[in-house]
Amino acid sequence: MAEGTWEKLSQVAVLSAEYDSPERQPHPKCLEGTRVDHLKFIHGLLDKRDKSQIIWLHGTAGVGKSAVAFTVAERMKNLKITQNTKIETRLAGTFFFSRNSTERSTTGHFFATLAYQLASNFPSVRNDVNRAIRENPAVLKSSESLRNQMKALFRQPLLHLQLSLRDCPPPVFVIDALDE
C-alpha cells in the first residue's frame, strides 16, 4: 500500500525542478572566488540551530540570484546531517521555478515535489508522507489548495523530522525564481 502512494507522489513530483536537473543545464553557479561574502553570510545563517531561517535574495534580473541559489544548494547537498549518515544531507529539497517550463511555472505540484525530495533525502519521513496521501489522495492534485498540500505533505513530516534532528544542523530547502 505504501509503495502505491509513493509511486503516485513520484508521478506528480516535478523532477526537473531539482537544482541539478539535466533540464536546467548549464547550471548557473557562482564562479570560484566570487560572491564569497554573500555565501559566507548565507551559510552562517543556515548553520544557526536556534531558529528557522528564511533567506530572501532579491535584485533585478541577471544579478546572479539563481547562481547563488544553485551554489548554496550544491554545498548543502555535499554536507551530511550527521557524521554517521550515508543518505541524509543538509539539502532537504529544491524547487527552481522557470516561466519557460510548463511544470516549473506553477505552484500546483510545488509541495508534492518538496515532499518527494524530503522523503527521498530523509527516509524516516516517508511514512508520514505516504500516510498523508492515503488519508487524502486529492492532496496530490494540482488544483488542491496550497495550504492543504503544505499542511499534509510538508508541515507534518517536517515536524516529525525536527524532533529526530534536534541536535543536528537544520535541513535546508532552496527555492529559486518564485516570481516566475
TrEMBL record:
It holds the Pfam family NPHP3_N. Residues 46-180 form the Nephrocystin 3-like N-terminal domain. It comes from the Eukaryota. InterPro entries: NPHP3-like_N (IPR056884), P-loop_NTPase (IPR027417). It comes from Suillus plorans. Keywords: Repeat. The keyword Repeat applies. This is Nephrocystin 3-like N-terminal domain-containing protein.
